[in-house]
Each structure stands twice: as C-alpha cells, then as structure tokens.
Amino acid sequence: MATKTSEHDSTDSFEGKAHEAINRAAETAGKAEEYARQHASHADERVREAAAHGRQRADDLLERVTGHVREKPLLSIGIAFFVGVLYSSLRRRR
Question: Most buried pick, 4, 40, 51, 69, via CB within 10 A?
Fold first, then answer.
C-alpha cells in the first residue's frame, strides 16, 4: 500500500512540475507576442511615414518638372527627344 501512495505522490509531483513549466512557457510566449506586436506596429508606422515622405517628394518633383516644361516647352521637347534617342540606342545594343 505504501508503494501506491508513493507512486501517487510521484505522479502528483511530476504533474505539478509539468504545470509550472507550461505556465512559464505560456508567460514567456505571451511576452514574446507582445514584443512582436509592438515592434510590428512601430515598423508599420515607419513604413507609412516613409511612403508619405516618398509621395511628397514625388509630388514636389512633378511640380518642378511641370513648371520647367511650362516655362521652356521647346527645350523640354528637345531633352525628351534626346533621352528617347539615347534610350533606344542603349536598348538596341542588348
């Protein structure tokens, strides 16, 4: 009879240690998840800011080019023609 009680105590002890290990693992996983969520949120924010900055720079450049074309239309046509000829000659070489 003493053996059965001893086995039962061993099983209970093992069960208790297993529960403790699972609880610690769950707590660690929860912390890791929170850490990942925070950093993902910050990364998303930085990407959105960079995209907005890129759009703003593209809009500014488009305004400058448009103003230049309006001020000097013949020069702009000449530059566009030259760039087209240069691009065509580079493409033919490939």
Answer: 69
